[in-house]
Amino acid sequence: MIILKQLVLVVVGLGGGLAVGSGLVAFVTVLDIIPRLTQLTNSRPYIKAYEWALISGALFFTVIDFFDWSWHLSRYLMLPLGLGAGIFVGLLAAGLTEVLNVFPILAKRLNIDGHLLVLLMAMVLGKVCGSMLQWLFRL
């Protein structure tokens, strides 16, 4: 019984990881987030650095999460790290807003033109509920 439970956990974990990873790859490639980000910041020659930063950051923090590593760093070291992470996420969000016209196109192709607000609200509420569950119950 315990082996079956562990096998189900492995399958669910791998499935969730593949879904999130596929979403990230689709987000970055289909929406051209990195090229648009370099265009917004006038840093086109550094496009490979952006790509490697995204890949290495995703791999590094996946390993940290997988092995449950933690470091007790001073607040003076955490300040620039947090600031850099916040700037990078903010820039990715700025790149996303530049290409946000994907949702109206998607709604037209799926024949749900009148329900675009419902689609966006479902996405927002799903993210909020998932974040609240993770925060409140430490899932």
Number of domains: 2
What is the count of β-strands? Answer: 0
Q: Report low-confidence residues grouped into runs of 5 or more.
A: none
Distance between the termini: 23 Å
Helix-strand string: HHHHHH
User: Percent helix among the residues?
Assistant: over 70%
The assigned structural class equals mainly alpha
Q: What does it look like?
A:
The protein has 139 residues and is an all-alpha fold. The chain contains six helices and no strands. The chain has helices at 2-30, 33-40, 47-67, 75-98, 102-109, 116-137. Helix 2 (33-40) packs across helix 4 (75-98).
Task: Compose a concise summary of this entry.
With 139 residues, the protein is mainly α. It has helices at 2-30, 33-40, 47-67, 75-98, 102-109, 116-137.
What topology does this entry show?
Blueprint: H1 2-30, H2 33-40, H3 47-67, H4 75-98, H5 102-109, H6 116-137
Overview features:
2 domains; 6 helices
